[in-house]
Amino acid sequence: xxxxxxKLLRDVRAxxxxxxxxxxxxxxxxxxxxxxxxxxxxxxxxxxxSYQRLGFADVWVAMxxxxxxxxxxxxxxxxxxxxxxxxxAEVEVEQERGRRPRVMGRLVTLPSGPxxxxxxxxxxxxxxxxxxxxxxREVLLEASFARAHSYRPGDRxxxxxxxxxxxxxxxxxxxxxEYIYPVQSKQFLVPTPExxxxxxxxxxxxxxxxxxxxxxxxxxxLTEEGRALAVGQAVARRLRSYGPQAPMTQAEQxxxxxxxxxxxxxxxxxxxxxxxxxxxxxxxxxxxxxRWVQAQRGQIGFLRASGFSARAIxxxxxxxxxxxxxxxxxxxxxxxxxxxxxxxxxxxRLLHMPYFVRESYPExxxxxxxxxxxxxxxxxxxxxxxxxxxxxxxxxxxxMPTRPxxxxxVRLPLALALPLRNxxxxxxxxxxxxxxxxxxxxxxxxSGSLIDSMDEGMELYLREIQRYDLSVGFLPPRSQxxxxxxxRWPGVLHAxxxxxxxxxxxxxxFEKETVAVGVVPGSRLRHLVGPGGRPLVPLPxxxxxxxxxxxxxxxxxxxxxxxAYIQNTRYRNADADLPAGHPVRQPIGFPVYxxxxxxxxxxxxxxxxxxxxxxxxxxxxxxxxxxxIRDRLHRLDGVALVxxxxxxxxxxxxxxxxxxxxxxxxxxxxxxxxxVVVYTATDTALWERTRxxxxxxxxxxxxxxxxxxxxxxxxxxxxxxxxxxLYPGQWLARLLIQASQTEGFSMQAVVAPRSYxxxxxxxxxxxxxxxxxxxxxxSRLDLAAAIRLREE
Length: 792
Hints:
Number of strands: 24
Largest sheet: 6 strands, mixed, barrel
Structural class: alpha+beta
Oligomer: single chain
Number of domains: 5
Distance between the termini: 22 Å
Helix content: 40-55%
């Protein structure tokens, strides 16, 4: 073993805790990168494998109705690899006692006969058996709905056809590539398995019950690569006599759109947080090594005078970063495997993916390990170059005392003068410690802001925007006279009509499918607020739109938007051109709002609904009557959905549980890293000043007084660093949140007072904890030996 390697081992042993702290900082950054990237790749691969194995459609084309024979004609179109026709119907579903009495159901037919498995959008059976052949009145239930209502094979449920309840047996539980996220449509992008379920039933049974023998109302296709849109348009032209809707490609399919949006929203966090962690690791290496170089100037001069080249000195101090990077990389990769498995496991519990992929990705581990080495070597590069450039004679002379500053002439109490002069006497040392605290505060502000922003968005949606106690949905829409009947029920304090119509909003060449929501003037149960918290109401002849939609369509106040009914056909058509009002805060979804009477006039009346049509009602009720009113509504004919505010909160809580858990994991990582960084900076400063503090002890200073001087000095430096880290942390959090918006959720960057308090108080408390080992070490010093030595 060479002399320099032996010196390295002794240096590491002498400052073992600092060295372990550096390795831990690097390992946290590596674990964050490795675990998040493995989870991201597994999630993406799970989607792709599920889509490939089950023949996820490239194009959907819905229509009013067509004979099944059109499928053969469509199959002959250029670019079509496979095509299937089916019936899709929205029905009211009654359930047995012990479950929610009524829910909204979507019946999707499956081929009957020997080819019942099908080619497009196949299902993976998770429990039970396939549908019988010949077909019977039985269904396969989508897994999210089955889990929400505790269905098992052999149970029964009761879809209603033309007002008549029909019994179906649950044959099996399935996962579908179309409903990995079980959302109703592109307009309602919040999965609600408690109130909406998908039932797969035999084609012939559904045809007979709907009175549509030999008919279909949707075709799904697999196409040649890159030809999905062209094929969809060709199919729509072929079906023009059957009232086709605009083709929907795989990229526009609601569940897939949400999944891909989640992946895109994941990328900024995947890039920013590990980069920030690894950058802090490099900073920690630089802080420690810079102080080692200052403390070892005499040793460096002796080594140079003994014949060691500047290159050898450079490599020696780079090896410190290399060893720290190796230790951090090994621990980080191991921790990353756990983190990746933890995140993937949460996704498995959240989504009923047909196929889950769990790969280890050795190449990702290698990249993560390399990043640890790179971060630590980059951090070591500056101090190593500084050590290599010190002339031998200057290094052996030691560091010359600095010229006294004007502050030295100011009369201050000794308890203040010593800490303040120490802070100002070594500006680089002070700056290094402050930079460590600044980075810790940034980490805490960014991770805390992510949690605060989600909490603020959910609070706004559930407490400010949606102020009702109970919502009711009708199928089909009813006349508004039903509302007057509900308003007279005992316990109903206030009732408002609700009407939501799916529309396509267009502006300046950009389009987005969403829902137009009717709001009554002076609404008490649907409160709209602007970005600044100012209440907003739709004015006659205008629409209000969500801030997310405004950004995507590049809409300004006063711009004219085109609204078109999403299911426009040549038989049924409604659209309108309306100027835009002010944007509204909308954390979930991106609806547009207009006056209810205007929505009824411009859309409902043209679509064959009653002139005063409503699709539901919002009720404010006396809490004592809530359960009774809910049960009474379930018994009413035409009521397809009843949901209390508490049930909505629980559904959203379950939906956001993964994100919330993930953010808390990041916060814990950030807190651990913040502590390690503060410990490294503080303990290194004490280690560097061992001789000074030992001298104070020989002059009669007790450990309590020395502890006060050290604490005051550290708090002065940490306070400056903590305050300086608040704004960069807030700025970075805002950028990260803006880049992480998804189709389902949009957040506004918020840093709650508690997060600021934690970001400030946390590192300051960490300073007290971090200086304790150093002070304990100083209290045990052999004072005579410590004073005789110029450096440790």
